Amino acid sequence: xxxxxxxxxxxEKNLSLIQEFILKLRRLSTLPLDEFLSxxxxxxxxxxxxRRSLEAIFDTGRHILAxxxxxxxxxxxxxxxxxxxxxxxxxxxxxxxxKMAGYRxxxxxxxxxxxxxxxxxxxxxxxxxxxxxxxxxxxxxxxYKKGI
Length: 148
Hints:
about 80% helix; elongated
């Protein structure tokens, strides 16, 4: 069911932005932990790039769900679940997105509980979860463009 057309340019710009942030996070992730922590700008930069990547993911998901299914003003965890339920992303991957949504919420609302070491671990171990979103959206956009 298509309510109105997707803004493909907007989605592609969000995906480009996420890729740009991943590149910056990858550079920071090559630093040893002690060097990463020795400059106060590193954790702040990493946290910003990570949070902004997550927000771009869920803004993209919200746009797709609003335009194709009429959903509005969804919470990030609901967006993640619905993306899997509607087949926009793999259902198993949507569970990962739910966790990412929860982490984004922690970053924004429980920021005082987020440590620099935690940001470092996430940056070192979980960037493939973000990269997978780009791949899933690439597949989705290919299918969408065929149907236009």
